[in-house]
Amino acid sequence: MNHSIHSADRGTHLKIVVVALVAGIAVAAFGIAARTNADYSQTAQSTHVIKAGKPVAVTSSGASTIR
To answer: Which positions, given as ranges, span the membrane (predicted)?
Structure first.
């Protein structure tokens, strides 16, 4: 039994790549399925538009400067 990835043979490297690829596809599929089954209709109806007010210029912070 070999415990180092550096001295592993080609078959071991191939197995690691295949397992990582399958795990990545499973995570992506789960994320896509979770997103497509979500119901966004209620949040879209309760959203309100907020308009920006007049711009404000701050000229002094009110803190004393120590030099």
So the answer is: 12-34
